[in-house]
Design goal:
This protein is mainly beta. It is about 5% helix and about 55% strand. The strands form 9 sheets. The protein has a 22-stranded antiparallel β-barrel. A 5-stranded mixed beta sheet has the order 6-11-12-9-10, with no helix packed on it. A hairpin with an 8-residue loop joins strand 20 (about 320-335) and strand 21.
Length: about 750
């Protein structure tokens, strides 16, 4: 990855680093990125210290005068190459930067890759292509902001973003902010930010094709091309197709998990009705415009369908779920500001339409209340569809007031609209149509003070949103329940601040604190037709986060440790009377812990990585005696160790071990929902391996296998999950995958 940074004049190194991290214009962090630009030396054996080269031909390249004795460093136009590790050192907050090398050659999903970072856990409701999300530091997926090329995917309806719907083949880089949310993303996110940046056009001509096949009927085919029409215009395009049968064996407990005879009826079964098909097409043109500006546009369309398997002891024969996703984005950046430019604007606009379709019949035994229970009505069927439309616009202004003082102000506007269509024999299901408008203003101010070889920095930021939520309402004939039209206006706000101390390019120590808030979604406020009752009286959820960390970087060694504490208050939970559910403000949680990351490269041909999270994720909800119990799906200890080496030219071997201590699937921490079930088992170990071979500059081959020594785990959380309505299916064993590619 090559970042072009404009001249800042006489600005201290710390100020440059702070502004570089938070500025989409300076580091191109907000827009599309190209995997072709990314030097793999940052992640593979043989990597060396990232370099910073200075271009003295820039018009603002003036050496400091002899009278300058303030210790201020003059920075000219800078080209930062392979800067991932340098960015990790310089940033004043918890940030993980993930490159394609962490998933190329495997069948990992976006959520799988993100969950390998410290402080992150995955929630997976099925096999390849199924609904999947993550939690960050104990904060659930519906509180995590997910952006694709700068456009937020979070729906005004509420709920978590389905990361399983996004192909990792389209991604050039992933940023995960686990503590403080930068103002350029709107700032107000309880659980942090996952910023997905697509591959885009580059000036080099290229054409490549890849194929993969693996266990349980997995297949994938893709082709990518870059073409330059001139020095000022170029285009990137890709086509991707993937499929899987998802038919792995698992232990079926037949709904008997407690008591001395609980294992008497256990049997090995195969997952049924879980096929998956996916197709995606993308085009990313870019144009260099007069005045040093570049306009980058992306257009992508994908369509997918997956069967919905039954819960343990049940069989679904026809249930299926499909998604259509269309995204168009356009961003105007200024790569080379003039000498007098003290403010740089980066506008962006995007449109997303996300169609979500579910079909089921009376032959499907586990499609419960959340999808209309019609199992007792022969020859009945249900079909529901929701169409979400999002229009988003933003403008980031990077301002430079003085040598050691800068600011960033972001204005964002967003319109969301949901339309629903439902056809059900008997029990209706669907969302009440609604719409939402958001306007936000966020800002960060960064300052620094160099003192010899040290540099002290401080950041303070905040923002406010104006959110209008409205629904036309409707009537449920079955329950004689009416949702009256409603129109509300709310103003959530957030504030954060932090301090930082850096010692040259070696050590960085930082402390941050923030307060966030979140407005309930339309589905939570106004209910779901046939499943969830409305509660327009819901109020905002609030959260606070505190973190303190340190990073150390040398040419062959990187270490990071972060202490964190995250609290949420007044969260929304679903209370059920056995027939209908109603959202209420009862949930609270507190998660404290430590995250540690380490990589060491003693020789060019070998590298070792270790990531670990030790945490206590405690439920603070007073309802149903949940207080003091562990949050579901949050192990106290999770760790990943990886070693990679290439003693033979063009061949690289890798092995990684993933460990999770035991955790519960339910809020009540019931023994029957303990994973693993055996109380004598301290946790789960997942062994994984990968081999890659690149015989020349055109061909590359690879084979990987995940969980090759374990059983296929499948554990249900509850009859109807609060997030999706699907059962939990995790960790199929022996997921092998063979890949081959050709480029020219």
């Amino acid at each position: 990855m090559v970042f072009h940074v404009r001249s800042l004049g006489r600005v201290s190194l710390c100020t440059f680093c702070l502004i570089c991290i938070f500025s989409g214009t300076l580091s191109d962090a907000r827009g599309d990125s190209s995997g072709t630009h990314t030097p793999e030396s940052a992640t593979k054996p043989g990597a060396t210290q990232d370099s910073i080269s200075t271009d003295h031909s820039h018009p603002r390249a003036n050496p400091p005068k002899a009278s300058d004795t303030t210790g201020v460093v003059t920075l000219d136009k800078i080209v930062v190459t392979g800067s991932r590790r340098q960015r990790l050192l310089e940033t004043s907050q918890s940030l993980s930067i993930i490159k394609p090398s962490e998933w190329i050659g495997t069948n990992k999903t976006v959520a799988d890759v993100v969950a390998e970072q410290t402080g992150v856990q995955t929630r997976r409701y099925g096999g390849t292509g199924s609904f999947q999300t993550v939690s960050i530091r104990g904060v659930q997926g519906n509180e995590v902001l997910v952006l694709l090329d700068g456009i937020p995917l979070n729906s005004a309806m509420g709920g978590a973003v389905d990361l399983g719907a996004i192909s990792p083949d389209r991604i050039g880089e992933i940023e995960v902010y686990k503590g403080i949310t930068p103002g350029e993303f709107g700032g107000n996110s309880l659980g942090g930010v996952i910023n997905l940046k697509s591959k885009s056009s580059i000036k080099a001509q290229s054409l490549s094709a890849q194929t993969a096949f693996g266990a349980y009927g997995y297949q994938k085919y893709s082709i990518e091309t870059n073409h330059s029409f001139s020095d000022k215009s170029r285009i990137f395009g890709s086509l991707n197709y993937a499929k899987s049968d998802n038919n792995w064996p698992y232990l079926d407990r037949n709904k008997t998990t407690l008591g001395p005879s609980a294992t008497d009826d256990d049997e090995i079964r195969t997952v049924e009705n879980h096929h998956y098909n996916f197709f995606e097409a993308r085009i990313h043109p870019s144009f260099d415009m007069p005045g040093g500006r570049t306009i980058v546009t992306g257009v992508a369309y994908s369509i997918s369908e997956t069967g919905i398997p039954g819960s343990e002891g049940s069989t679904n024969r026809t249930a299926k779920h499909g998604q259509d996703l269309f995204v168009i984005t356009s961003r105007l950046s200024l790569e080379k500001p003039s000498q007098s430019s003290n403010i740089v604007f980066t506008p962006e606009i995007g449109y997303i339409t996300w169609a979500d379709k579910t079909f089921w019949t009376s032959l499907d035994e586990s499609m419960g209340t959340s999808h209309g229970s019609i199992a007792s009505a022969p020859n009945s069927y249900g079909e529901s569809k929701s169409d979400l439309h999002i229009v988003h616009g933003s403008c980031v202004a990077d301002m430079f007031f003085a040598d050691n003082l800068g600011a960033q102000v972001t204005i964002q506007g967003k319109h969301s609209q949901i339309a629903t269509t439902t056809h059900v024999s008997g029990f209706p299901h669907g969302d009440w149509p609604g719409n939402s408008q958001e306007l936000s203003l966020a800002g960060d101010v960064n300052g620094s003070l160099p003192v010899g070889r040290l540099s002290f920095g401080a950041t303070i930021g905040g923002g406010i949103q104006a959110i209008r939520s409205a629904t036309k309402g409707g009537k449920n004939e079955v329950f004689t329940m009416t949702v009256v039209p409603s129109d509300t206006m709310e103003y959530p706000w957030y504030v954060h601040g932090g301090i930082q101390c850096r010692f040259e390019k070696v050590l960085n120590v930082f402390i941050n604190a923030a307060r966030y808030s979140k407005i309930p979604g339309l589905r939570e406020k106004y209910g779901t037709n046939g499943a969830v009752m409305p509660n327009p009286e819901l109020t905002e959820e609030t959260g606070t986060t505190l973190e303190a960390g340190a990073r150390f970087l040398s040419s062959r060694f990187f270490a990071e440790a972060v202490l964190f504490r995250t609290e949420t208050h007044n969260g929304v939970v679903m209370l059920s009377d056995g027939n209908m559910t109603k959202p209420v403000n009862l949930a609270s949680s507190m998660t404290t812990g430590i995250e540690a990351s380490l990589w060491v490269q003693p020789w060019d041909f070998i590298r070792a990585d270790l990531r670990a999270t030790l945490q206590d994720a405690e439920n603070r909800t007073h309802q149903y005696k949940y207080y003091g119990k562990k949050l579901p799906n949050e192990p106290d200890l999770s760790a990943l160790g990886k070693i990679s080496f290439n003693p033979i030219k063009c061949v690289e071997f890798g092995y990684w071990l993933d460990y999770k201590s035991f955790f519960f699937r339910d809020f009540n921490n019931t023994d029957g929902w303990r994973v693993p079930e055996n109380k004598n088992d301290p946790g789960m170990f997942f062994h994984n391996a990968q081999i890659s071979w690149k015989p020349n500059s055109h061909f590359d081959f690879g084979i990987s296998i995940r969980n090759f020594n374990g059983n296929s785990f499948r554990y249900e959380e509850m009859a109807r999950s609060a997030e999706s309505g699907y059962s939990w299916i995790l960790y199929p064993a022996n997921e092998w995958c063979f890949t081959a590619g050709y480029s020219f």
